[in-house]
């Protein structure tokens, strides 16, 4: 199987008054796994359905290996899709579900069954061929759905939040397996998700969508370390916005002077973007800060620290330090010495897409 | 067959677009034709019946037929009889079914299959065969039981003023509907937790049943009662073959002499069914929004 | 320990219902069975034999024929109507049709017959308006009765099938398309097989309803269409040879057997459908 190059060009789609896609441009390289990440309603699923042929864009086109497939009916497209849940045909057992596409193409039964068995083995379910969907667990159902999507050897694999209905543990195992399989098959894969952790851990590149537009597309590390827009910074991980003063290549923040990387805004006043794990917290009776909230997460603990000027900052500290950094502890706050991103001045504070630790005192 | 459909709701999934059919035009034409034919078939008899009842040979239009309903001989008597039978049937069917359904849910789940069978059989067995059996019992009974107190009983249940035998038969016919309605109602509330909480607070079993479970089942019981009432008000086979003058039998009897009146009553009874079922479905809706 | 005590006590709550059913339902059924095999006081299969001969057999076949026709026609028409409603974007249409179906499915018996007599009977409104009488139209035959039975059967089918059609997930159609299936192939390999239990179940319900119907036929056609329910009623009201009274019981037993066989097909089907369309 060889992956295809997929291009979305100026894709627009509206449903009544809501705009699902507002001029989406995106190119997916052959053999790449790209994650479409964004909040619900950002158009990521619509983009996928345009590629699968279940939606027609109002404007723009979808190209696979340079050929425009925008008007090709869904059942003639070369893209296997795995749906969110419950997509297995309930009247067919796992083997016949996987072999469905071959049956439609009139493949002889013996070859069909042999191939279906191969695929079931590929997804780690060699023994469930005779079982019906209602006899399979959620994770098994999605594996069978994956096998079915791969059965016709498509050049593109489409995954529409395939893990969202599963238990946390199954989710992690299955995503690792999907990635392993995708790498060994070299199939171009588009993965729609609203779970940033999923996107960052699986994808070669992550495309962040917002209101039907592409905000940023980059490899996970770049996306995390150098978000192109405040929205991306907010959506991927947590981010502190701390007030800083620019001077040349340097910025002064919390009394420290750090080198600046990336573009600089015009004025001397700027927001310095700092991830919680780049904030160091040390207990210090003389310190200006105070731990307000602490939430223990096992290997780390996330603290909300109030600074002397009333601003708050999120900090991730090693889990074993959480005991001596209990709420109420006076602390000193420092930033890790490394180049930082700055952006034009907005409201000071913390933005995060992850749940805040406020609940835990 | 008075099974109101469970309200089938289609949850709107945020973020996913409403699936638009690939070729929107053809299905719409097809759908329009089907709906139009259905509308003609189902509306014409209703409209025609009404026209039939208000069409007077000389004046053209008259509502006399509807007035005549009330003055026709036997109207009040048969309607009152049917309503009385309905009330008695409702009381007995609820008294028998409610404790059984609660017991099966709480303490004796092994009896559920038995109850299911008992409450399905009356649906399978056609009413006319049931009445064949009943009339045979009533015919033979006096011969075999002449010397026992049962003789008096057999005579008493056939009192034309209030035929208890009809109530008994109607209870059997109503069992499936009452059972299903009450079982569904119980399924919607967590009886076990409710009754355990009440027991934990020191309530006795009768107290639990009357003060905790019954109030939470009000609309299911109303549903069962409405269905039973509709059934009794429409039942013809058993009443006619046992020769009792209930409301449907009365409509049939007067049809020979007063064709217009009998059609007028038919329209009238359809309206009553409609109202009963509307009341039923709105009671159901109230419970859903209430809980 | 508390549980087992509750169990043994709550069993008693089931007893009144069972006792009632055994006496009021069981005794007549036993008497029916006994009577079927008794002629003039002695055990005999003569009633059963007679019930399966001549005019009795004709009426039994007549009932099965009209019920089967109503079931199949009602099944097909009801499914189309249900599909038209389910695929419609108008919620009000859907709610309206479902409510109307709930009412019309219960609109049987004598009133239904009179409504149709007023419409298409010999002096019915439509008959006289369109002058159908001159073209030899009559409502009081096999086809007329079928037309009338459909009036409550189609709505009943709609009520049975709509939940099943709602249970057809859009993902199945899309997954089928994604695997290269055309619309026709989707229905052939997935849609129809998934719906079959529900459809068959509905058809069987319609059969049972038409088979047991008595009031409508009695009020409409009297005895001009041979139906087993009419024959039983005839025999019960004394219109039968002396000594042959129990033929009515034998006919009833025939009916129960037919209805029982049909139901025996329905129940497992319903279970399967429920599992698929959760």
UniProtKB/TrEMBL annotation, chain A:
The keyword Transport applies. GO terms for molecular function: ATP binding. Keywords: ATP-binding, Nucleotide-binding, Transport. Signal peptide: none annotated. InterPro entries: AAA+_ATPase, ABC_SmlMolc_Importer, ABC_transporter-like_ATP-bd, ABC_transporter-like_CS, Mo/tungstate-bd_C_term_dom, P-loop_NTPase, Transp-assoc_OB_typ2. Residues 6-236 form the ABC transporter domain. The keyword Iron does not apply. It comes from the Bacteria. This is ABC transporter ATP-binding protein.
UniProtKB/TrEMBL annotation, chain B:
The keyword Transmembrane applies. It is found in: Cell inner membrane. Gene3D superfamilies: MetI-like (1.10.3720.10). Residues 8-20 have a biased composition (Low complexity). This is Spermidine/putrescine ABC transporter permease. Keywords: Cell inner membrane, Cell membrane, Membrane, Transmembrane, Transmembrane helix, Transport. Residues 79-280 form the ABC transmembrane type-1 domain. PANTHER family: INNER MEMBRANE ABC TRANSPORTER PERMEASE PROTEIN YDCV. The chain crosses the membrane at residues 33-54, 74-102, 114-141, 161-179, 220-239, 259-280. Residues 1-25 are annotated as: Disordered. The keyword Transmembrane helix applies. It is a multi-pass membrane protein.
From TrEMBL, chain C:
This is ABC transporter permease. It is a multi-pass membrane protein. It comes from the Bacteria. PROSITE patterns: ABC_TM1. The chain crosses the membrane at residues 12-35, 55-85, 97-120, 140-165, 186-214, 247-269. Keywords: Cell membrane, Membrane, Transmembrane, Transmembrane helix, Transport. Belongs to the binding-protein-dependent transport system permease family. CysTW subfamily. It is found in: Cell membrane. Residues 60-266 form the ABC transmembrane type-1 domain. SUPFAM superfamilies: MetI-like. The keyword Membrane applies.
């Amino acid at each position: 199987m060889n992956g295809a190059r997929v291009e979305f060009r100026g894709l627009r789609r509206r449903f009544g008054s809501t705009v699902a896609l507002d001029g989406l441009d995106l190119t997916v390289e052959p053999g790449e796994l790209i994650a479409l990440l964004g909040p619900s309603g950002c158009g990521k699923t619509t983009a996928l359905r345009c590629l699968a042929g279940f939606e027609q864009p109002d404007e723009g086109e979808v190209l696979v290996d340079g050929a425009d497939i925008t008007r090709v009916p869904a059942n003639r497209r070369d893209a296997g899709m795995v749906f969110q849940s419950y997509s297995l045909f309930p009247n067919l057992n796992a083997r016949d579900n996987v072999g469905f596409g071959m049956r439609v193409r009139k493949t002889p039964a013996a070859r069909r069954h042999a191939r279906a068995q191969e695929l079931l083995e590929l997804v780690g379910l060699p023994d469930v061929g005779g079982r019906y969907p209602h006899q399979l667990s959620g994770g098994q159902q999605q594996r069978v759905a994956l096998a079915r999507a791969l059965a016709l050897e498509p050049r593109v694999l489409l995954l529409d939040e395939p893990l969202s209905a599963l238990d946390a543990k199954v989710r992690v195992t299955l995503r690792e397996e999907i990635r392993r399989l995708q790498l060994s098959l070299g199939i171009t894969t588009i993965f729609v998700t609203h779970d940033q952790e999923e996107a960052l851990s699986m994808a070669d590149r992550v495309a962040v969508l917002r209101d039907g537009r592409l905000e940023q597309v980059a490899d996970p590390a770049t996306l995390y370390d150098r978000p192109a827009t405040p929205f991306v910074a907010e959506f991927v991980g947590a981010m502190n916005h701390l007030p800083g003063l620019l001077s040349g290549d340097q910025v002064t923040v919390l009394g420290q002077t750090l080198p600046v990387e990336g573009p600089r805004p015009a004025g001397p006043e700027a927001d310095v973007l700092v991830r919680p794990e780049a904030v160091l917290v040390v207990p210090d009776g003389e310190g200006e800060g105070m731990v307000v909230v602490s939430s223990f997460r096992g290997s780390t603990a996330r603290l909300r620290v109030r600074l002397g000027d009333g601003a708050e900052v999120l900090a991730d500290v090693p889990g074993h330090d959480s005991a001596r950094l209990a709420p109420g502890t006076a602390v000193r706050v420092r930033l890790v010495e490394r180049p930082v991103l700055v952006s034009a001045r907005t409201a000071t504070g913390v933005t995060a897409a992850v749940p805040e630790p406020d609940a835990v005192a | 067959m008075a099974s109101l459909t469970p309200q089938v709701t289609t949850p709107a999934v945020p973020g996913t677009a409403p699936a638009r059919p690939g070729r929107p035009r053809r299905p719409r034409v097809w759908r329009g034709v089907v709906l139009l034919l259905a509308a003609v078939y189902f509306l014409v008899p209703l409209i025609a019946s009404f026209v039939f009842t208000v069409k007077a040979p000389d004046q053209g239009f008259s509502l006399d037929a509807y007035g005549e309903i009330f003055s026709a001989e036997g109207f009040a008597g048969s309607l009152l009889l049917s309503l009385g039978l309905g009330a008695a049937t409702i009381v007995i069917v609820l008294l028998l079914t409610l404790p059984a359904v609660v017991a099966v849910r709480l303490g004796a789940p092994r009896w559920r299959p038995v109850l299911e069978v008992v409450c399905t059989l009356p649906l399978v067995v056609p009413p006319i065969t049931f009445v064949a059996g009943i009339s045979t019992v009533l015919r033979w009974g006096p011969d075999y039981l002449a010397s026992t107190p049962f003789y008096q009983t057999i005579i008493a249940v056939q009192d034309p003023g209030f035929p208890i035998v009809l109530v008994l038969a109607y209870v059997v016919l109503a069992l499936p509907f009452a059972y299903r309605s009450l079982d569904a109602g119980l399924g919607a509330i967590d009886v076990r937790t409710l009754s355990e909480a009440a027991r934990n607070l020191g309530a006795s079993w009768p107290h639990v049943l009357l003060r905790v479970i019954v109030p939470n089942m009000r609309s299911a019981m109303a549903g069962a009662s409405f269905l039973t009432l509709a059934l009794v008000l429409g039942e013809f086979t058993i009443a006619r073959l046992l020769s009792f003058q209930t409301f449907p039998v009365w409509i049939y009897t007067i049809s020979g002499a007063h064709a217009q009146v009998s059609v007028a009553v038919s329209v009238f009874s359809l309206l009553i069914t409609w109202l009963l079922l509307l009341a039923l479905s709105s009671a159901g809706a109230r419970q859903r929004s209430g809980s | 320990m508390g549980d087992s005590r509750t169990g043994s006590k709550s069993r008693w709550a089931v007893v009144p219902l069972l006792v009632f059913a055994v006496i009021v339902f069981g005794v007549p059924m036993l008497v029916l069975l006994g009577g079927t095999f008794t002629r003039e006081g002695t055990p005999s299969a003569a009633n059963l034999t007679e019930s399966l001969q001549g005019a009795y057999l004709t009426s039994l076949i007549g009932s099965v024929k009209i019920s089967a026709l109503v079931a199949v026609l009602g099944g097909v028409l009801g499914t189309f109507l249900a599909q038209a409603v389910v695929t419609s974007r108008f919620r009000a249409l859907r709610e309206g049709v479902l409510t109307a179906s709930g009412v019309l499915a219960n609109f049987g018996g004598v009133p239904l017959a009179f409504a149709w007599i007023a419409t298409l009977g010999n002096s019915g409104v439509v008959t006289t308006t369109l002058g159908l009488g001159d073209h030899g139209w009559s409502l009081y035959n096999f086809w007329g009765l079928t037309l009338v039975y459909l009036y409550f059967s189609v709505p009943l089918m709609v009520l049975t099938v709509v939940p099943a059609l709602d249970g057809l997930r859009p993902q199945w159609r899309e997954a089928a398309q994604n695997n290269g299936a055309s619309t026709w192939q989707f229905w052939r390999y997935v849609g129809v097989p998934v719906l079959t239990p529900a459809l068959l179940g509905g058809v069987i319900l319609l059969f049972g309803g038409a088979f047991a119907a008595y009031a409508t036929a009695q009020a409409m056609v009297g005895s001009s269409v041979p139906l087993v329910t009419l024959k039983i009623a005839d025999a019960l009201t004394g219109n039968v040879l002396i000594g042959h009274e129990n033929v009515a019981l034998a006919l009833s037993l025939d009916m129960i057997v037919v209805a029982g066989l049909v139901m025996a097909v329905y129940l497992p089907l319903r279970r399967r459908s429920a599992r698929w369309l959760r």
